[in-house]
Amino acid sequence: MFVVDDHQLFRAGIIELLRDQKGIEVVGVASDASDLWKRIEDRLPDVVLMDIDFGPGRSQEGIVVTQQIKEKLGASINIIMLTMHDDAKLKRMALRAGACAYVLKSDDPGRLTHAIQNAADRKMVQ
Amino acid sequence: MNDIKVLVVDDHQLFRVGMVEFLKDQRRIRVVGEADGEEEALRCISDTLPDIVLMDIDFGPTREMEGLSATKRITETYADLVKVIMLTMHDNEDIIFDAIESGARGYVLKDADQETLLQTIISVEQGGVILSPTQAEKILKKYRYSMRSELDQELSALTEREKEILKLVATGASNEEIASSLSIAEKTVRNRLSTIFSKLHVNNRTQAAQYATKLGLD
Fold it and tell me: Is B55 on the interface with A (CB under 8 A)?
């Protein structure tokens, strides 16, 4: 797992939340696109949890990065958007960019772990 | 030393649960509950009486700024018994100002690091008020601006002639000297001065002179 979110306290919470989940290991975190590109190629995660907005003036950057990861690193990395935006248009854009799931920050932890499991299973099928 | 009892209030369940998991592992901190909005937070506080409430501000599109009204109600009901720290993504001086006005004792951004959050919890529990240097600067700027606009408002209530008279009062001129300098009757100066005192809510010429300095008329 690789977690991309501009809020450090959210990242810390998600890592704690996933720590005890069987079969999930967080191999890296990043706060934005440039941080991500410094780290992701060394660690090649199976699944990326990707925020959409990276702060003021950087809205929807997560969707752009999703497309770039798919183009540069190939289809084997599955990306789950993890966002506060309950917005059908953003969801369509994210899925079109290559995300395999769209999870809201207001969803329950079970929904997230289920999405991660599905993404990992997808990888095994590929 | 007793544990610090903490309640986490945020509408994003994944943030809330993650925060609870993170705080549970910290020394001296005991999470006593979590809530997804104002009403649930108030119920939780009444049941568990936490020392600290970590409070989000924005609870989604239909509940914007709910964290501020919740903070106000908590502060009005529990005063210093329950202290509120805003934990938010909003780094805007108006919102920081409103949060402090609502009774928040600390303000932490979600992009802060874990150590900052933990230190803020400990300091606020001990009675401190914690803002980052950048937030303190924003509050001061906003405070100075609001003071200046108040003064500007009072200044605009004075006529040009009243401003001239006030300026001369500030130099220490007597009514007779002011009358002579402006070529008006001394009685007119007295009448005008009484209007100026009333507009500026002052009682005598010394206070009026001090006010003139504040208004930048000296």
Answer: no
Alpha helices in B58-125 (DSSP H): 66-78, 93-102, 114-125
* A26-57 residue pLDDT tens: 999 999 999 999 999 888 899 999 999 998 88
Two structure tokens written together for B142: 């906003």
Burial class (CB in 10 A: 0-12, 13-18, 19+), B84: buried
A-chain residues within 8 Å CB-CB of B12?
Answer: 84, 104-106
Number of Cβ atoms within 10 Å of the Cβ of B90: 18
Neighbour-count burial of B62, counting CB atoms closer than 10 A to its CB (0-12 exposed, 13-18 middle, 19+ buried): exposed
Dist. CA B37–CA B44, nearest whole Å: 11
Residue A67 clears pLDDT 80, i.e. is over it = yes
The pTM of this model reads 0.78
Residues of B in contact with A9 (CB under 8 A): 15, 19, 22, 87, 108, 110-114, 117
* ipTM score: 0.87
Candidates B12, B18, B19; nearest CB to A106: B12
CB atoms under 10 Å from CB of A35, counted, come to 15
> pLDDT tens digits, residue range B78-94?
999 999 999 999 988 89
> Per residue in B19-49, is it b (16+ CB within 10 Å) or e — as a string?
bbbbbeebeebebbbbbbbbeebbebbeeee
For residue A92, CA distances in Å to A61, A88, A119, B134 come to: 15, 6, 18, 38
pLDDT in tens, B125-141: 999 999 888 888 888 88
